[in-house]
Specification:
Two copies of one chain form a homodimer.
Chain A (H helix, E strand, L loop, with lengths): L6 H19 L6 H8 L3 H8 L2 H25 L4 H12 L2 H4 L1 H13 L4 H23 L4 H24 L6 H18 L5
Helix pairs in contact in A: 1-2, 1-4, 1-7, 2-3, 4-5, 4-8, 5-8, 7-9, 8-9, 9-10
Chain A binds a DNA duplex (30 and 30 nucleotides) through α3.
Chain lengths: 197, 197
DNA sequence: TTCTTGATTGACTGATCAATCAATAAAAAC
DNA sequence: GTTTTTATTGATTGATCAGTCAATCAAGAA
């Protein structure tokens, strides 16, 4: 069975398995053995390809981050007006793939892990900065730079908060009403600032 | 040295030590031995008084929750107008004791733990519901019930999001600007709804 | 004084897990 | 057809930890 060129395939399978396992458990307290079993390979193979648990987890984060980046790019490509761009950025965060309970749980676990891992913290900051600058850029076409920055900060915080609440399932808002809440914030602020929508 | 009536003192010391240890590590991945050492007692004593790690952690959560409740009550007592009440609720969340990096890190860890522990989830929901109903009540004196509920949801989400961002130290907003951001959201929404402030 | 009871610990156990390694097997290269 | 390279695993190791237990110590009760 052993063919050549298995590395990228196995890596991908292990990362997918890691997402599923971490998402289900809602924590990074998953064993390499569990992930490997979910991927249908031996634990030793995971170490062989990734070098260790930490690196497998980082690779998993990078994968999720790349996926989010792709989704964002796709959404922005078809949005022509600033208003549409803002709506697209918000919508991506609550799209089915990003807002799935497993994905949200995984992100939450990564935030905790960031307290102990410099690289994890760095990756999360990259994501936060990208989201903020995308929002601020689109908003700055509709209002002053200062107001745009403020709204971007508020909206980004609100989105993160809705994620946490979603993870807790506190009779938490569904995607549609979460989107509505954030968009309402943005439009209310823009209107109050005298922007023409 | 062994006197009688040590139980409440030791429990309190262990809980305080747990807060410090968890806060510093930014994770529940702390050993009972570490907490006990921080409290200046043997690991066996922690088990003796709490029965196990899980129960010590739950007791720690309850303690933090009670503290937040007390702070909130104190703040609400001196606030007479609805506007002052809303401001007080927001301010409590960003008060020095609640917004301290260690406390925020501990809360974040609890959110992750809630994915696996029913009791932890229940406790976090109690907190979320209390915060929401306090906000909604104060706001409903200034605008319609429907708008009040919406603002309460948005403000609560924004507060949670600012917590996460604070834990990440992303050039994160300081307490003062975090408070300003949330208050701006509330007043902007109230003004747009035609409320008299 | 003797007995009881609560406080406290050191030493131990059993389980879990990340990581290692030597061994096997199959493809590809020569 | 022999050698090399890549894929893969079972078995093992070493470390870490939660939890247990029997023993000790001191204070108050009888």
């Amino acid at each position: 069975m052993p063919k050549v060129g298995m590395e990228p395939l196995r890596k991908r399978e292990l990362i997918d398995a890691a997402i599923r396992t971490i998402g289900q458990r809602g924590s990074l307290d998953v064993t390499v053995a569990e992930i490997a079993h979910e991927a249908g390979v031996s634990p030793a193979l995971a170490h062989h390809y990734f070098g260790g648990k930490e690196q497998l987890i980082l690779a998993t984060m990078r994968h999720l981050l790349k996926e989010l980046g792709r989704d964002l790019l796709t959404a922005l490509e078809t949005a022509r007006t600033p208003t549409a761009r803002v709506a697209a950025i918000i919508a991506v965060n609550f799209s089915a793939s990003q807002f799935a309970p497993q994905t949200v749980a995984a992100w939450l676990a990564f935030y905790v892990h960031a307290q102990q891992s410099d690289e994890t913290r760095r990756l999360l900051r990259v994501y936060a900065r990208r989201m903020h600058s995308n929002l601020a850029y689109a908003l700055s076409r509709m209002t002053s730079r200062a107001i745009a920055l403020q709204i971007a900060e508020g909206a980004a915080a609100m989105i993160d908060g809705l994620y946490i609440r979603h993870a807790l399932r506190n009779g938490a808002p569904e995607a549609a009403s979460a989107i509505a809440l954030v968009e309402d914030y943005v439009t209310t602020k823009l209107t109050a600032a005298g922007a023409s929508l």
